[in-house]
Amino acid sequence: MDLKVALPEGRVLEVVRAPAPVLSQAGPVVDPAAPEVLQLCADLVATMRVSPGCVGLAAPQLGVAAQAFCVDVTEHPKARSKHGLIVLVNAVVMDASRNEKAREGCMSVPDLTGDVKRATRVTVRGQLPGTGETVEISADAFEARALQHEIDHCTGLLFLDRVAGAHAIHTRKVYLGSPDHG
Amino acid sequence: MTYLAITVLGHDRPGIIAQAAEALSECGMNLEDSSMTLLRGQFAMTLICAGEAGTDEIERALSPLLDDGTLTVSVREVPDESAHPALGNPYLITVHGADRLGIVARLAGVVAEAGGNITDLTTRLAGDLYVLAAEVDLPADVDVETLSGQIAEVAGSLGVDASLRPVERDEL
To answer: Do B69 and B6 reside in the same domain of the chain?
Structure first.
């Protein structure tokens, strides 16, 4: 499947941190062809690329309530399916199965990590920015987790909303260089 | 059989648990349930141990922990409540948002009014972000939807996000 998108030059922007209200807002559906949406997608990719260990970033993390995100788990050792760079708008999880618990971090919650149960197999449907073509992506393992994490951001949810129990929130001991979701 | 509740609090350093556990072991006290974490860098341990030793003997045995003046230790006899039945159904409350005075008090108040019992609680302050996760046993006759609405209302008035959901359990 061709997931390539043509984006303008992206800007590296500051990542918004909780408790910023935008991180708790459900983002609206966006027009995949709108120039500002293309710029937003480009900024997401550019900011993800310069952030050590970051494998995904969603629009609210750049301060914009919108359903847009990028993911790239290519270099991650826990990844099995690897679609390379995925940039999607208006994405939803169509199908999810085989839950597993794992510890997640997030650039918007830099001091904490949390144990979150998520599906290890998902089918995600979304639109490519630019053409607006609808695509379906089947992912597993770490890529599935990353997609769910980013789609959650687009609906105003943080991993903190999904932790598995009262003892599932941890103070992060290592800040940089450790694998991270967006 | 004596049950003792022991707390050790204070400046963290390597070896506190080893020292405490060794002292209890030498007194023939079996370390049963325990919980230890760092709270804003402070060592915080609570445990229940069982055996034949009394409070005075255990206080003496643990007194070397006090030598450098950075830890406090308390020892107190408690009744055996290990067979205490769980009340109702387990739920998880999560809250996150800007730190505000009274978040725990207000939310715990709503839970208590509904007859819910908080069985596990973690709160963390990370920069400006306050996070709470609490496991709550709710009586079977509690209207969860109403309680959820009350929690959302309190959270809204505090400007934080909160959710109430059943604790997921996979029986294998």
So the answer is: yes
